[in-house]
Amino acid sequence: MILRVLLVCCVSLLLSTPGSRVTAADKPVEKGTRLLGIAVNEPENKKFDAAFAKARDAGLQVFSLKLDWDDVEKKPGKFESPWPKIVNQVFPPQKIRVSLRIAVLDTVNNRVPADIRGKPLSDPAVVARFHALADWVLGEMPDVEFADIAIGNEVDGVLGADAEKWKQYGEFFKATRTHIRKKLPKTPVGVSVMFNGLTGPTAKLAAGLNKDADVVMVSYYPLNADFTIKPVNAVEADFAAVCKAYPKRPVHFVEAGCPSGTKCGSSEEKQKQFVEHLFRAWDRHADQVKLVMFVWLNDVPDEMVKWCEKYYKINNPAFLDYIATLGLRTFKGSGTDKLAYTALKELAKARGW
């Protein structure tokens, strides 16, 4: 799921099933070294500072920044984007860490610059170009403390079941991860893969890629193939499945969210219950799951939904409703808290956030 909407916002700051409810008997686990992120975006009034304050009030520690390679490098060797410098100015003084994703592949799209897009990703020329990109991006953010860095976003969506493409991406990742770690030896570097990519038919291919990663990164939405939601308590089994597949490995849920829209079979109550079950699952796997990034703070406007329809090439009404209603709060005016926001705030506070 794209997080582009978050970047524009920085400028302003220079599922219900019987018996599935989480009860008071579930004892919270202290946050410890776990990190909580919320994908902060503006409501209709475009007051990002107020939105950011709402996220901080709910326990925000990490901000998500996603850069598409071909957006930053429109001409060979020429890099241009205001966002790294803005992030460097805004977040370090507030002790907010950054989860950085550089989209080489992005869910359903190849974001390698056009002049080298036809080459295998393992080609030395492609690797060298990415190294130059990474050097520029990191050079623009000398003061940022990174929670993690992802080389690629939901890459399984582009790689599919093609073993050769996974192999090439693995070679590319191994080289580029080594390059970044030399500059930031304490920062975990990985690759964002969708939940089904980690646990479904491509699980072995994903495991081969993740063997060279410092952290297993997953984007997670409790959705069926038709974009209707699963029973909200499925998040508990799904967390367990990822942790079982990667025993003793740190796991970052770089995206996690549940819509509230009726067209995808959800509601505000079900969205709230998703948050409750997620925290229970997180507590059970606190030794492995070190970061969760909730998507989004606010619902998004119609123009963003239309942009996603075009970008992802999906016009399924349930998909569009999923995009439109992922927020923990509404969009209109200054936004109002949904049940899920209140639950997140209370559950986070109970754990020390």
Compact summary:
With 353 residues, the chain is an alpha/beta fold.
Task: Itemize the secondary structure elements and their pairings.
Layout: H1 4-10, E1 35-38, H2 48-57, E2 62-68, H3 69-72, H4 83-90, E3 97-106, E4 109-110, H5 124-139, E5 146-153, H6 156-159, H7 163-183, E6 189-190, E7 192-194, H8 195-199, H9 203-210, E8 216-220, H10 234-245, E9 251-256, H11 268-284, E10 289-294, H12 302-312, H13 317-324, H14 339-350
Parallel strand pairs: 1-10, 2-3, 3-5, 5-6, 7-8, 8-9, 9-10
Antiparallel strand pairs: 3-4
Helix pairs in contact: 5-7, 7-9, 10-11, 11-14, 12-13
Keywords:
single chain, 353 residues, alpha/beta, TIM Barrel, five-stranded mixed beta sheet, five-stranded parallel beta sheet
Question: How would you describe what is shown here?
Answer:
The protein is α/β, with parallel strands linked by helices and 353 residues long. The protein has one domain (4-350): Glycosidases (TIM Barrel, Alpha-Beta Barrel). Helix content is 41%, strand content 15%. It has 14 helices and 10 strands. It has helices at residues 4-10, 48-57, 69-72, 83-90, 124-139, 156-159, 163-183, 195-199, 203-210, 234-245, 268-284, 302-312, 317-324, 339-350, and strands at 35-38, 62-68, 97-106, 109-110, 146-153, 189-190, 192-194, 216-220, 251-256, 289-294. The strands form 2 sheets. The chain has a 5-stranded parallel sheet. Strands 2, 3, 4, 5 and 6 form a 5-stranded mixed sheet that branches. Strand 8 (216-220), helix 10 and strand 9 (251-256) form a beta-alpha-beta unit. Helix 5 runs parallel beside helix 7 (163-183), helix 10 runs parallel beside helix 11 and helix 12 packs across helix 13. The two termini are 26 Å apart.
